[in-house]
Automatic annotation (TrEMBL), chain A:
Keywords: Nucleotide-binding
Keyword Iron recorded: no
GO molecular function, one term: nucleotide binding
A cellular component term, taken from the record's GO annotations: molybdopterin adenylyltransferase complex
Similarity comment: family membership: Belongs to the MoaD family.
InterPro entries recorded: Beta-grasp_dom_sf, MOCS2A, Mopterin_synth/thiamin_S_b, ThiS/MoaD-like
Organism of origin: Pseudotabrizicola algicola
GO biological processes: Mo-molybdopterin cofactor biosynthetic process
Pfam families for this protein: ThiS
Protein name, as recorded: Molybdopterin synthase sulfur carrier subunit
UniProt superkingdom: Bacteria
TrEMBL record, chain B:
Family assignment from sequence similarity: Belongs to the MoaE family.
Pfam families from the UniProt entry: MoaE
Free-text function comment from the UniProt entry: Converts molybdopterin precursor Z into molybdopterin. This requires the incorporation of two sulfur atoms into precursor Z to generate a dithiolene group. The sulfur is provided by MoaD.
UniProt EC number: 2.8.1.12
Species the sequence originates in: Pseudotabrizicola algicola
Protein name: Molybdopterin synthase catalytic subunit
EC category: transferase
Keyword list, A-Z: Molybdenum cofactor biosynthesis
Catalysed reaction, written as an equation: 2 [molybdopterin-synthase sulfur-carrier protein]-C-terminal-Gly-aminoethanethioate + cyclic pyranopterin phosphate + H2O = molybdopterin + 2 [molybdopterin-synthase sulfur-carrier protein]-C-terminal Gly-Gly + 2 H(+)
Length: 83, 146
């Protein structure tokens, strides 16, 4: 399947991209992260500490064990600092 | 209800006045304004990044929760993104209710949730470079009181 993967804040800076299209058969968010980490060091740097990251699936907050079936857009970012 | 995610500045006076005048049936209006702290002059700018699309959805969902929970006549959220200088207004929240307790509580609820559930990220630019503002444990803890 094809996924739009978005990165924000320091995750975007570490990976060096705001977004990319990823072809994957990953079953869960964690599986996708493992694929990305295996690609290149910059992904390993960005995903070094999953506890300090949040994930959104089709623009709704989700978890790293969530399934990817039917998901079109996934975003990774640090805890939000609005207000 | 109105929400606006924008890079342009907003007119606090005009927004507050229009909100209060338009809140038919209200007996109380509460407004909150967030301002960029200049950290004693050491901040040269703050950059606010957001997730277009999700930001609006997340704020709308937070506002719907507030409306479901308190007797609100109306609510308003304006939140800016982009580069802001110290002293500039980042965001405002306004709530209108028949009585003040609901207006105050809903405004605090909106602020607590906007802080850690709306996809914004702040970066401070100063003389020693740039650094992302880290989320605070107490911001997450603040949600448990609701």
């Amino acid at each position: 399947m094809k996924l739009e993967v978005l990165y924000f804040a320091w995750v975007r800076e570490r990976i060096g991209l705001p977004r990319e299209t990823v072809q994957t058969e990953a079953a869960t968010v964690a599986d996708l992260v493992a694929e990305l980490v295996a690609r290149e060091e910059r992904y390993a740097m960005a995903f070094a500490d999953l506890a300090s990251l949040r994930v959104a699936l089709d623009q709704e907050l989700g978890s790293f064990d969530a399934p990817l079936a039917g998901v079109r857009e996934i975003a990774f970012f640090p805890p939000m600092t609005g207000g | 209800m109105r929400l606006s995610v924008q890079d342009a500045p907003f007119d606090l006076g005009a927004e507050s006045l229009a909100f209060a005048k338009g809140a038919a049936g209200a007996g109380a209006v509460v407004t909150f304004t967030g301002i960029v702290r200049d950290n004693g002059g050491s901040l040269s700018a703050m950059e606010i990044e957001h997730y277009p699309g999700m930001t609006e959805r997340a704020i709308a969902a937070i506002m719907e929760q507030a409306v479901a929970r308190w007797a609100l006549v109306d609510a308003l959220v304006i939140h800016r993104y982009g580069r802001l200088a110290g002293g500039e207004m980042i965001m405002m929240v306004a709530t209108a209710a028949p009585h003040r307790a609901d207006a105050f509580a809903a405004a605090e609820f909106l602020m607590d949730y906007l802080k850690s559930r709306a996809p914004f990220w702040k970066k401070e630019l100063g003389p020693d470079g740039a650094s992302w503002v880290a989320a605070k444990d107490e911001d997450e803890a603040a949600l448990t009181r609701w």
